[in-house]
Specification:
alpha+beta, about 525 residues, 4-stranded antiparallel sheet
Length: about 525
């Protein structure tokens, strides 16, 4: 053995885990035995144990050995084969554990996700107008408690509900949210629904929640009150129509919203969180789904059913407690404006009617003939004419007397003609008749003037009285029409409200009947 081979063999003694490289002469036949022991043939190439190709070929990651050398494994290689089998068993065991753990986690996750039945977001509640009316009464009492300070949404502590209890006894949040959403005004946003307790009642659950909402506007609750009586100095027609006036566009006649105590009636302030307690009275799993079947009215509930119940209460006088109505802050201003418009309307219509009546009476009075100012005076021309006519008549009569009488006297006495007597008698007789005719004419004119005066006065009084009667009749007709118009409007409002209540009741009852029919068909 040459010196190079000896030195390399000595250096390998101190590193037994590394492959031992032995140089050999490929032309030496004695080297083939060593070659056959240390290397194997693979695809016509000599491969050193350890996966190293002896002829300079093989894996790119292998240790390249120069031509004419061979890597010989140390004698401690056989125990490493046993350790390889043990590692494989450990690897298999680890993989099995991981697989079993994964299956367990997956199974638990599946079971956990399916522990709570899915919830129905459809309207599964019981519907009947009688129940809506009862809910309205409960809501009104709760509102009054809230206004008077005896109700407190934060007073009741929340009961800690475990995860398993929540899965087994509580409907999914989306079902609860959908149910609550149906009971709140559209402008209200639900920010939180926190379960604070539950009670199992048979197969159903009774649940308590603390609800937090937010509104972009102020929310008030106001009572509907009968309007105070008219002013003492109000005209009689206005006093008559006062109970029939439509002070608001939705309320019955003679009622108004009492929004004077504005701060007291504020429930939720705009853009601020507002919390209240809410009860789900009955929820149960039916046909594999949680179905919410009965709920108490939430504090901010308002719908057609509640409006109809409140109006029905108002029609019957409100009872001991006036009906309450939910409204927005801007509605309060509208209520006041509506009241002012109604008062202005009735006053304006009354003033217009009053002016029309006055004009009608003036027209009637203008048609009445004027009363005579007094007895008509003497017509002197007529008196003169009568005197002249009397004088002529007297002259004629005197002349005739003179002719007949004096002629007889002359014949009897034989005295002949009496000087101037024949001419004097007609003249004197004419004067006498002239004076008489004058007196008679004056007396006749005075009598006729008095008669005409009395007739004129009587006619004036008669026509004036008739004009007054016609004016009063017209006034009575107009005032009666004024009152009747407002009473007709009031009757129409009552009719409309009753129609709305009836339609709402029918819709509620039909919804409940349709749901019952669907339930029977499903069964």
């Amino acid at each position: 053995m040459n010196m190079l081979n000896r030195l390399q063999s000595v250096s390998r003694i101190w590193s037994p885990k590394s492959p031992r490289v032995v140089l050999f002469d490929p032309e030496d036949p004695s080297a083939h035995a060593l070659h056959a022991e240390a290397a194997g043939s693979q695809d016509g190439q000599v491969v050193v144990k350890n996966g190293v190709h002896a002829n300079g070929a093989g894996s790119a990651s292998g240790t390249l050995v120069q031509y004419g050398s061979v890597a010989v494994e140390p004698t401690s290689v056989s125990p490493q084969r046993g350790r390889g089998k043990g590692g494989f068993l450990l690897l298999s065991l680890g993989v099995g554990i991981l697989l079993a753990g994964g299956l367990a986690i997956g199974g638990f996750t599946y079971w956990w996700n399916h522990l709570q039945a899915p919830g129905s977001v459809a309207d599964e509640e019981y519907h009947a107008f009688e129940r809506t009316t009862a809910q309205y009464e409960n809501w009104r009492k709760e509102i009054l408690d809230r206004i008077n300070g005896s109700g407190n949404a934060e007073a009741r502590p929340a009961k800690k509900i475990g995860m398993f209890d929540a899965k087994a006894h509580l409907p999914p949040e989306e079902a609860v949210h959908a149910c609550l959403r149906r009971h709140l005004p559209g402008y209200v946003t639900i920010t939180a629904i926190e379960p604070i307790g539950y009670r199992s009642v048979g197969n159903a659950e009774e649940l308590d929640y603390r609800v937090t909402v937010e509104s972009p506007v102020d929310i008030y609750v106001v009572p509907a009150l009968a309007v105070a009586g008219p002013p003492e100095n109000a005209p009689e027609p206005i006093k008559q129509v006062w109970p029939d006036l439509l002070w608001d566009a939705t309320l019955p006649p003679g009622m108004e919203f009492g929004a004077d105590e504005k701060d007291r009636y504020l429930l939720a302030k705009a853009d601020q969180k507002f919390s209240f307690l809410w009860k789900v009275e009955k929820a149960q799993v039916v046909d594999g789904k949680w179905r919410i079947q009965r709920v108490a009215p939430p504090l901010l509930e308002w719908n057609n059913g509640f409006l109809a119940a409140g109006l029905d209460n108002a029609l019957h006088g409100g009872g001991a407690v006036p009906p309450l109505f939910l409204c927005r802050g801007k509605d309060l201003g509208e209520y006041s404006a509506s009241w002012n418009r109604c008062l202005s309307d009735v006053q304006g219509r009354y003033e217009a009617m009053k002016a029309d009546i006055a004009q009608a009476k003036d027209d009637l009075n203008n048609e009445v003939p004027k009363a005579p100012g007094g007895v008509r005076g003497i017509d002197t021309a007529a008196v003169k004419q009568a005197r002249s006519d009397g004088f002529k008549e007297g002259m004629n009569k005197g002349q005739e007397f003179s002719d007949n009488t004096l002629a007889n006297v002359e014949g009897i006495t034989g005295t002949g003609t009496i000087p101037y007597f024949e001419a004097a008698v007609p003249f004197v007789n004419g004067l006498f008749h002239s004076k008489k005719a004058e007196k008679e004419e004056i007396a006749r004119q005075r009598a006729r003037a008095k008669a005409e005066y009395r007739a004129g006065v009587a006619r004036h009084e008669r026509e004036a009285k008739k004009a007054v009667e016609l004016g009063n009749q017209y006034q009575a007709q107009q005032e009666s029409r004024f009152v009747q118009d407002y009473r007709d409007l009031a009757s129409k409002r009552v009719e409309d409200i009753r129609g709305f209540i009836q339609r709402t009741a029918i819709a509620e009852d039909e919804a409940g009947k349709a749901k019952a029919d669907r339930s029977l068909r499903q069964d």
